[in-house]
Write a structure and sequence with these properties.
mainly alpha, single chain, 0% strand, 78% helix
Length: 172
């Protein structure tokens, strides 16, 4: 840092060291320096957002929203902000960002999985079932997907489909 103050990596590394030592006050200082030096570069914002997720949810949200505004088609930013909103149970915001991510890349299991849960949480079981079925197309080895599809088929009165899914799940 003394030789080249414009390098971002040393600030991030020091921030992560302080974070690992649970010295969040010093870690925040170095994350902020890295953000400032990088001119608020998206990758640095996303890195810092994961730190802020632990200590300050409001700051985490601010940083994630800024990252998404800067690059509206940044898949990683959309997934991270979707994850963030899922964790704080803001399912409508989560759905909003994850649907954008799904438009960019339709083959991301995590996106479809969270969409399935969000739609289930807001009571839209048809959309939930749709996304869990899409999950199954991407990964036939997820017991959690089978569990949710079994439940959704039963509540929709599709007991035959649910029983078939039970047999598939038991094979795993």
């Amino acid at each position: 840092i003394k030789k080249k103050k414009e390098l971002i990596a040393p600030y991030l590394n020091i921030a992560k060291i302080y974070e690992s030592l649970n010295d969040f006050e010093r870690a925040e200082i170095y994350y902020n320096k890295a953000i400032d030096i990088s001119h608020r570069k998206n990758s640095i914002l996303l890195d810092a957002s994961q730190f802020y997720k632990k200590i300050d949810r409001n700051k985490c949200e601010q940083v994630l929203v800024e990252a998404v505004r800067k690059e509206q088609d940044n898949l990683n930013a959309l997934i991270l902000i979707g994850d963030f909103y899922y964790e704080i149970k803001d399912y409508f915001s989560c759905i909003n960002f994850l649907l954008k991510a799904d438009q960019i890349n339709k083959k991301i299991f995590q996106v479809k999985f969270l969409l399935g849960f969000c739609f289930l949480e807001i009571g839209n079981t048809i959309q939930s079932k749709k996304y869990f079925n899409e999950c199954l197309l991407l990964n036939k080895n997820s017991i959690e997907v089978y569990q949710n599809l079994i439940y959704l088929n039963y509540i929709h009165g599709n007991k035959e489909s649910a029983n078939q899914l039970i047999h598939e799940a038991f094979k795993l």
